[in-house]
Amino acid sequence: MLFFRSEEMAKAWCEARGATIRPLVTMDQLWALSTRWYSTRLDPEGRRPTAEEMPAIFASIGLDDEHWNPKSDRFGP
Amino acid sequence: MAGVSKEGPMPTETDVQVKLAIYREFAETGRAPSCERVAGRAGLSTDRVRDAFQSLRSQRLLVVESDGASIRMAPPFSGVPTDHRVESGGVEYYANCAWDALGILAALKRPGLVRSRCAQSGEPLDLVVGENGPEPSTWLYHCLVPASRWWEDIVFT
Prior knowledge:
The structure holds two protein chains of two kinds. By secondary structure, chain A is mainly alpha-helical. In chain A, about 40% of the residues lie in helices and about 5% in strands. Chain A has helices at about 5-15, 25-40, 55-60, and strands at about 1-5, 25. Chain A starts with a strand and ends in a 17-residue tail after the last helix. By secondary structure, chain B is an alpha+beta fold. Chain B is built from four helices and eleven strands, in the order ββαααβββββαββββ. Chain B has helices at about 15-30, 35-40, 45-60, 100-110, and strands at about 5, 10, 65, 70-75, 75-80, 85-90, 90-95, 110-115, 125-130, 135, 140. In chain B, β3 and β4 (about 70-75) form a beta hairpin. The chains are: A mainly alpha, B alpha+beta. Chains A and B meet through β1, α1, β2 and α2 of A and β2, α1, α4, β9 and β10 of B. β2 (about 25) of chain A pairs antiparallel with β11 (about 140) of chain B, so a sheet runs across the interface.
């Protein structure tokens, strides 16, 4: 989970590692995601969003690619 | 023993006490508290705090080192130095990743400055974040690991 100066820089980083480039996220999108994810974290009732809640959070900021689908992200031991 | 709901493991009262002790220490100092420090803040024994650490791990609110006591992550805060630093309210914080750098300011509900770099070129990033979000910026965020696999190795993620 890294910052890049441009799309070209992200592509170069992935190519150097033989990795597939994923959907890129703008700073405004990342802020929206951060507030939805973490704004209650310091509160007594604050918790991580569940796998069932995540798709709506991602979709609300335009992240509806399969990459953001947490379908197998289940709580385990 | 915590129960389980569709939201995942149900936090116990002790879990909440320990979680708040950890997160408030991070918020106030920017650094991870020791197990003893958490015990002192929460008014609990270190044995109960260690048990709560495991429960909070299952709720994906905490990552501890192999000793079961040293805090590595309480997302968005990092217990170890990283390349993603945040300055706010006169305190310096370390974030686990680029997302968590903004996440720290979202959690604190305070303006601040994110200091990081381009992972490819090394160009420094100084991103001013106000109460309503970051200043206009053309920088981008990239997450290599699919969401369904984040917690297979959360430190790598």
